[in-house]
UniProtKB/TrEMBL annotation:
Domain of life: Eukaryota
Organism encoding this protein: Pygocentrus nattereri (Red-bellied piranha)
Transmembrane found in the keyword field: yes
Alphabetical UniProt keywords: Membrane, Repeat, Signal, Transmembrane, Transmembrane helix
UniProt cross-references to SMART domains, sorted A to Z: FN3
Residues passing through the membrane, by range: 539-559
Domain (Fibronectin type-III) ranges: 156-244, 442-536
Entry protein name: Fibronectin type-III domain-containing protein
Signal peptide: 1-22
């Protein structure tokens, strides 16, 4: 019994869940909206037997009129086309299943119809029910009852034969109307716009004024009679206004650069902005640049379709004029006076790089922080396959943009970026890029330029690549081999070296170049180095003072020894080293008993004798033997003195130096010769 109850309860839960899921599925099932239109004429309307108040399109509908309408018929509108005597309705049919439906009309009127085929006329009025039948599922649905008065829904035929006569700023539109109309509406818009503008006119023509010259417009016309509805809009007609003379000259900026080191030839770069559409008033065919020097009256002219011009000039003052022209005429002239010898300069951009985005090129750049404010940037790109350069202007606060115009596969583009500030233009930064490879630059020859104990400088070379990986950017990374921390930053074509500081001494490091792509990154180059423990200049700073100190001590020791010896141990003269000293030390002079005294008065000479009183010292050369004999003769020898004293006493020594004595007077002589007795002691 309990098992039977359990089975019944389980079955009930299953049925309940199934029912709930079914309701949820039906509630979540999306509705299908079908736009439906049905048009009939009087020949299609049939009468029902024994039912004078009903006319139908299918006699099977005579007995199937429902009093309650369905909400599946939305946005229903009907009209009566006067020229075709036809009646038609449009509505949106809402269905749960996408299937082909059969639609029909049921006309009813309380007072009945006299003749059903004639109920569709301008004076008729009736009630309308729309019937839709699903032949597959045999389901019929009826709309609510619509009250119809033909006079209110009469629609005149749309105008035909539209003609347009264009001027620079207006379009003169004429049309043909088949029926008498009360008024017509002209709707127009510029081809590049989405909003329509409507103007009303009671005639068969209308003039649209205030248009832009050389602009494409779309227009259409619809009319309405004295009663009824507005006709259908005519087929859209395309018209273009004529060109007009440009109303303003282009704004120009300039840059001066030297072509050689002598500054005798300079390049004058002129860059100008394309005219706005409302100013150009047509298609600009080209630009005319004329320039003259204040020193020379000759006028030089060039014509170009580009938005820049490069002139080779000599230093000096120049008057430059610029104008634009189209098929209607020339614009006013822009006058610029430039002194190429003395001019202001605007720094260029740096870090220009291009990467691929679908079918376009995204470029980015940067400027120097110390640079003056830049009002805008001018971007130029061209390729051998383009007839002329393409240009784009961006705001000075923007440092990236996307190039989409004329960018094609298998083409190499040269991209130039010019910074602009009022009338000044900076030098261009240029790169080459393609959709397949991005920027056509690659990094090679990574090497260490200088290594110290706390820093390293690495450098590399940029070279052009023909093809390869599409690199979004290159990164330079420094990492210590014994640490996981890595320092990295992005490098651009204007950078060829970089220095890392605050490194550890006597440590191993690695420097790598990585290329970032959409799928990841790859290592382009890698080098390793070790920081030294001491710097070369530190070694020199330590060694030089030590060497100088040793050298100074050596000099001091030599000088101090000489000075010390002179002051504390002076040299004592040795008489035996002098000839006269040896003569004086000769003991034989003691045996000379005769004293010879000179009178000092005799040495006083007259003036006449002064000139002859000359003493001359003559050095005579003696042989070594003679000198030795003299030395033996004058050296005291005790033994000789003792043995041969008497013999040697008779002999007087001779001078070894020859002396020319002065001339003495005749009365000069010895005063007295006396005998000096020998000492008895």
């Amino acid at each position: 019994m309990s098992s039977s109850c359990t089975f019944c309860l389980f079955s009930y839960l299953v049925c309940l869940c199934h029912y709930t899921l079914t309701l949820q599925w039906q509630g979540k099932q999306s509705k299908i909206y079908t736009y439906t239109e049905l048009t009939v004429t009087g020949k299609d309307v049939k009468a029902c037997k024994d039912q004078k108040g009903i006319c139908v399109l299918d006699t099977d509908d005579c007995g199937s009129v429902s009093e309650q309408g369905s909400d599946t018929f939305l946005n229903t509108s009907c009209r009566f086309l006067k020229n075709k005597e036809s009646f038609g309705c449009k509505w949106t049919y809402l269905n749960d299943v996408k299937t082909k439906m059969i639609h029909s009309f049921i006309f009813t009127r309380d007072k009945g119809f006299t003749y059903c085929p004639e109920i569709l006329n301008e004076l008729s009025a009736f009630n309308l029910i729309i019937k839709s039948k699903d032949p597959h599922n045999k389901i019929e649905r009826f709309s609510e009852v619509y009250s119809i008065t033909i006079e209110d829904i009469v629609q005149f035929p749309r105008p035909d034969g539209i003609l347009v006569d264009a001027t620079e700023t207006s379009l003169n539109v004429t049309w043909i109307k088949g029926w008498k109309s009360k008024k017509c509406l002209v709707r127009y818009k510029q081809s590049t716009m989405n909003e329509w503008t409507e103007e009303e006119d009671s005639e068969m023509f209308h003039v649209i004024e205030g248009l832009q010259p050389c602009s494409q417009y779309s227009l259409t016309v619809a009319c309405i009679g004295e009663y009824g509805m507005l006709s259908e809009w005519s087929t859209q007609f395309q018209a273009k206004t004529l060109e007009g003379v440009p109303t303003a000259p282009p704004n120009v900026s300039y840059h001066v650069a030297s072509l050689d080191n002598t500054f005798r030839t300079q390049k004058l770069l002129l860059v100008w902005k394309a005219l706005e559409i409302n100013v150009a008033r047509g298609v600009i065919l080209g630009y005319e640049v004329a320039y003259t020097s204040t020193k020379q009256a000759a006028l030089n002219k060039i014509t170009t379709s580009n938005l820049k011009a490069e002139l080779e000039v000599a230093p000096g003052d120049y008057n430059i004029t610029l104008m634009a022209y189209n098929s209607a005429g020339q614009s006013p002239v822009r006058h610029v006076r430039i002194n190429t010898a003395s001019h202001e300069s605007l720094p260029g951009v740096r870090g220009l790089w291009a990467s691929t985005e679908v079918d376009s090129l995204r470029i980015r750049w940067e400027t120097e922080k110390a640079a003056v404010n830049v009002s805008e940037f001018a971007i130029e790109w061209f390729s051998p396959g383009l007839a002329s350069s393409q240009w784009k202007r961006v705001n000075g606060a923007t440092f990236s943009t996307v190039l989409t115009d004329s960018i094609k596969q298998l083409e190499t583009y040269t991209i130039n970026v010019y910074p602009l500030y009022e009338s000044l233009c900076g030098p261009s930064e240029s790169i080459q890029a393609s959709l397949e490879n991005g920027t056509l630059l690659d990094i090679v020859h990574l090497e260490c330029a200088n290594v110290t104990k706390t820093s390293v400088t690495v450098r590399w070379v940029w070279q052009r690549k023909a093809n390869g990986t599409n690199v979004l950017q290159y990164r330079l990374a420094l990492s210590a081999l014994d640490e996981s921390e890595t320092k990295s930053f992005t490098v651009f074509p204007h950078q060829c070296q970089h220095s890392f500081y605050k490194l550890r001494t006597n440590a191993k490091y690695s420097v790598s170049i990585y290329g970032d792509t959409k799928s990841g990154n790859f290592e382009k180059a890698n080098i390793e180095f070790t920081t030294p423990l001491y710097e070369n200049d530190e070694i020199i700073k330590v060694a030089v003072p030590i060497v100088l100190l040793i050298f100074g001590l050596g000099i001091f020791s030599v000088l101090s020894r000489t000075i010390y010896k002179d002051y504390f141990f002076p040299s004592i003269a040795n008489p035996s080293h002098s000839l006269i000293g040896r003569w004086l030390l000769n003991p034989f002079h003691e045996k000379d008993a005769v004293m010879r005294v000179l009178q000092l008065e005799d040495f006083s000479m007259t003036n006449q004798l002064i000139e002859k009183a000359l003493m001359q010292m003559e050095h005579q050369k003696f042989s070594e033997k003679e000198v030795a004999d003299e030395d033996m003769m004058y050296l005291p020898d005790n033994s000789a003195v003792e043995n041969d004293g008497a013999e040697n006493s008779e002999t007087s020594p001779s001078l070894t130096e020859y002396v020319d004595l002065p001339l003495f007077p005749d009365n000069f002589g010895y005063v007295e010769n006396c005998y000096i007795p020998e000492s008895t002691s």
